[in-house]
Amino acid sequence: MQKSIERVAGDAEGVSYEFPVFRFTGTDKSAPSAYLQAALHAGELPGVVAIDALMPMLDKAEAEGRIKGSLTIVPWANPIGRAQYHFGEHQGRFHLGTRTNFNRGFPLLPAPDTALLPDTTLGTADQRLKSRLVQLSLGHDIVLDLHCDDEGLAYLYIHTSLWPAMADCAAAMGVDGVLLWSEDADGTFEGAAIMPYQNAPADVAKLDRRVATTVEYRGILDVDGALAASDAEGLYRLLVVRGAITDTTLPAPGPFTGLAAPLENIDMMPAPRAGAVLYDVKPGDRVAKGARLATIVHTPGEAGGRTEIFAPQDGLILTRRSRRIIRAGEDLLKLVGDRKSADARSGTLED
């Protein structure tokens, strides 16, 4: 394993950011290569500790000559967001200088060629970071972007061109659900990983062996040793299943039995009033149309001071907010319905 340090120039003289990159050289050039990164939203740490638990497994595989495809690992992908604090609270989702989500604005290249990346010399620090992450990841057969939600089940975002071919990956990781998407107008990192291959010749696209996904590792507070070890085992199984690593001691995963649904089936349930949220449901609950999902206490102590929220259709509660204070219009939860939502959103679900 080799470690290098990437440096990103800041927006003023004397300011720069750095992050480590770990590389394992594969022994078989025909084997799939893999790129894993965590904490693009810098406060989302389940993926960071999963990679920490994965590294000894990779070291052992390397020592035993079992790493076939080259691996690139970036445990802290966002040093800019990692350094952002405002009034003592960490702010890792948006770049404070540009007010841009760190997982938006990635260049969506027309072909898998880093020479097509825009010149960010006169851009902002977050644009330079995004360009470098695309450079590091482009060309790998397996690209995993590790995130988490507020409170939720473990699930994946997968482009429709890779499903159901990636069902083995979902099974290997042991996730509860898969959300399928088909368009990206916002420039997510996952979009930057898969969109360049959509119009490429079949011998370049290799969609049958390609893996690109945003991994949502449950909730932002689900950071502990047992979960990290379990998630690391899932990542390791995926690398074995897809041939980047050989391990004859691992049994083949069974079929994926979790939920798979198009993005358009999700109801986000925007709050009609601001106030305190009293949830009646939690992630993993199955609900029927008309079931009460939450109550918003907007004028406490007064008659009519509560507003109840009901399920618009049958479905599964995938996530909910970790905060219990809500603004009017802010989304309360993700309900994966059995049919298309009457309020279906295309592209990214949240800012």
Characteristics:
alpha+beta; 7 helices; AstE_AspA_cat; 351 residues; five-stranded antiparallel β-sheet; hydrolase; Aminopeptidase; OB fold (Dihydrolipoamide Acetyltransferase, E2P)
Description of the molecule:
By secondary structure, this protein is of the alpha+beta class. The protein has two domains: 2-257, 3-Layer(aba) Sandwich (Aminopeptidase), CATH 3.40.630.10; 264-337, RNA polymerase II/Efflux pump adaptor protein, barrel-sandwich hybrid domain (OB fold (Dihydrolipoamide Acetyltransferase, E2P), Beta Barrel). It contains seven helices and 22 strands. The protein has a nine-stranded mixed beta sheet, sandwiched between helices. Helix 1 (46-63) packs across helix 7 (225-241) and helix 4 runs antiparallel to helix 7 (225-241).
